[in-house]
Amino acid sequence: MEDGPYKYIRDGNGKVSRVIRIGTRKSQLACIQTDSVAEKLKQLYPDLHLEIIGMTTTGDKILDTALSKIGEKSLFTKELENALERNEVDLVVHSLKDLPTTLPPGFTIGAVLKRENPHDAVVLHPKNAGKTLDTLPENSVIGTSSLRRAAQLKKRFPHLEFKDIRGNLNTRLKKLDEKADFAAIILAAAGLRRMGWENRISQILEPEDCMYAVGQGALAVEVRARDADILEMVSVLHDSETVLRCIAERAFLRQLEGGCSVPVAVHTEVKDTQLYLTGAVYSLDGSDSLKETMQTSIAADDKSLEQVDEPVQRVGVTASKISGEAQDRAERLGVDLANLLLSKGAKEILTVARQLNDAR
């Protein structure tokens, strides 16, 4: 039964409870990710009734164009947000790296779950089994649709060639295995692991070879910012270390004004109570780059736990159960590191990368 924007269900004993509707992309990976979040919510709230609603997004439809050429930041998220806005769903599960650093008004990220391995992985064509990027023959073609990956790897492995490859994980693996076009492709390790395809990972790229994308490996739950009850419900899914790392990364990207169409990469780690952020920008061919590391303390005194009526958003994230002071420091770290790179000429590198990419 419907009552206003919400949907309710009555069980055999006449008890009425609200149905929570979760929106997702229809790709197999998106469904697996959404199911994992639904599973966690069911464990925490056994009486919850969940309904999963699959949708097709623009990014799923345009498969013949490189993502960076489409030039739209909310490629995989727009339709899902429209459904959220129209009250057709109550929460949406995304890969955090697909979510722009500035969300449309009225939305917020209510949960960032514990991060899976954020690194990129090399998946070899079966005929190259046992090889690494280093040992692949001269002029081998590597498939990647990411400017960030291509820029770093061109510089690091000059004997290789890089070509665009689009499609979801299933499609890309099929293109790799069934044709002789690619010697290997580069994919996020997290997606392969979630799909249960860990055995296809030939090599995990360490930060010195290839730093990852902002938010890579983390799942985010997007909700309506005014839905206090839903926000409260999903907030238990937050992983505080992942939240602080991703706030720093997102603040760095936002300050640089980077998106899908420019090569920006990060690496974060928490050691003791220090948060370290390494950030870099690259020219399209990787020949020109700037890379720096900064750190900040994220030790929080218990007094700084936020008890405020009005939840604060930081780069789109609402996490009222995590120290506000630690979140502020993480955000500051991202902004400071971006400003340091900008002072060294990052703007010029990114502007040229953008123009060259537009002209491709």
TrEMBL record:
Q: What class of enzyme is it?
A: transferase
- What domain of life is recorded for the organism? Eukaryota
Coiled-coil region(s): none
Report the locations given in the UniProt record: Cytoplasm, Cytosol
Please indicate if the UniProt record lists Cell inner membrane as a keyword: no
InterPro entries xref list = HemC, Porphobilin_deaminase_cofac_BS, Porphobilin_deaminase_N, Porphobilinogen_deaminase_C, Porphobilinogen_deaminase_C_sf
The record's GO CC annotations read: cytosol
Question: For this UniProt entry, what is the primary localization, expressed as one broad class?
Answer: cytoplasm
- Identify the residues that the record assigns to the Porphobilinogen deaminase N-terminal domain, covering every copy: 20-231
What's an example of a GO molecular-function annotation for this chain?
hydroxymethylbilane synthase activity
User: What NCBIfam families has UniProt attached to this entry?
Assistant: hemC
Q: Which family is annotated?
A: Belongs to the HMBS family.
Protein known as: Porphobilinogen deaminase
Taxonomic source organism: Seriola lalandi dorsalis
